[in-house]
Amino acid sequence: MPSSNPLSSLFGRSPIGPIQEHMQVANDAAQLLPAFLEAAQDDDWKLAEEIFKRIGEAEEAADKLKRSVRRHLPNSLFLPVPRTDLLELVTIQDHVANTAKDIAGLMLGREMRFPEKLEKHLLEFARACTATCEQALVAIRELDELLEVGFTGREVVRVEGLIKELDKLEGRTDKQSKALRARLFKLERKLYAVDVMFYYKVIELLAGLADSAERVGHRLQILMAK
């Protein structure tokens, strides 16, 4: 049955698929972080390096998709949403993959492991951050449906609910980040100052991962409002 999507008839295929695929591989990179952190906490740097390579492969795939979208996204008045908004969405999604690689790269390079007293809380925080990324992907998977219905009707209500849940998950990571920093602060005097600096940096990057995922949802919300 022929597609009723005007983008398909005008340009052969919608640009939405590659944008969704881009978010998928960005999320793939993020979802590897808890396993990486567990390997680091176990001092299993061989496993950590293997996971880092997989994160790097996902980040590289995201970069290729990002460049492809930028080259092939139609520069046309027939796009149902502004081209610049779709490009901004891809840029934000790319931050998810880049941040995941930055976290793993920093920790691998320094063979960092957090103090044992923080281990449980660190892993819980990391899993919450990656759950936020997963929720962003769930929302982006609805982008093609939104396009089909012209960003109106029940689908908009459904996606608004997904974004609301995304905001809720990110809010949880904010609280966990604050609590983890407070626990680290209590241990500072017993730790090497340079190590403490990098512990805070990793916490900051993890929080940034969740923040980027939330921004994906906010950008989707902007698309629906236009």
From TrEMBL:
Family: Belongs to the UPF0111 family.
Name by which UniProt lists this protein: TIGR00153 family protein
InterPro entries registered for this protein in UniProt: DUF47, PhoU-like_sf, Put_Phosphate_transp_reg
Domain of life of the native organism: Bacteria
SUPFAM superfamilies: PhoU-like (SSF109755)
